[in-house]
Design goal:
globular; mainly beta
Length: 171
């Protein structure tokens, strides 16, 4: 947001309460006082809104909570369970270690039109409205979280397809 043409901010700059970044498909707003983030699509529909202040401490761990909408569903998380496809109301430990099966993948898609990926090797947990129907979130051991927000409404499509198998590979 720019000041009106010809105006001069007092003191040389304007102190806004929020920082807003926009792309063609996404608006991200950060509250400067709390650090809380809000993600909205190009039409202004709120996709993801922090429910409480996030935390990150090298000695104590990290975490964030986001407002959950009524009826919102969470799909993904890899093969960390075979009991369900939709994960609302459950929590899952996400930690890849030397295992023969049940590989967790710290990525999910919401039915509200976004995805979230945690790119970390640190042990962490996703709480998908198990603790409260009003929020979902993640938290983990000491370490630095690396979290990606992927706006929707459609998941990315591969740009190329793998080549078909040769006839001899099919038997």
């Amino acid at each position: 947001d720019q000041p009106p043409e010809g105006s001069q901010p007092s003191g040389g700059f304007v102190r806004e309460a929020k920082l807003t970044l926009r792309t063609g498909c996404l608006t991200v707003t950060a509250d400067k006082a709390t650090g809380r983030l809000r993600f909205a699509d190009a039409n202004g529909k709120i996709l993801l809104d922090e429910y409480a202040d996030a935390w990150s401490d090298p000695a104590k761990g990290f975490g964030a909570r986001f407002a959950a909408q009524e009826g919102e569903k969470f799909l993904g998380f890899g093969d960390q369970t075979r009991d369900r496809i939709e994960h609302r109301g459950h929590s899952a430990a996400m930690w890849v270690r030397n295992v023969a099966s049940y590989i967790p993948v710290a990525f999910f898609m919401s039915t509200r039109g976004y995805g979230v990926c945690m790119n970390t090797t640190f042990k962490h947990t996703f709480d998908k409205c198990e603790t409260s129907p009003h929020w979902f979130g993640f938290g983990g051991q000491p370490g630095r979280p690396d979290c990606y927000f992927i706006p929707g409404p459609n998941p990315p499509k591969p740009t190329t397809l793998p080549p078909p198998p040769t006839p001899s590979a099919l038997g």
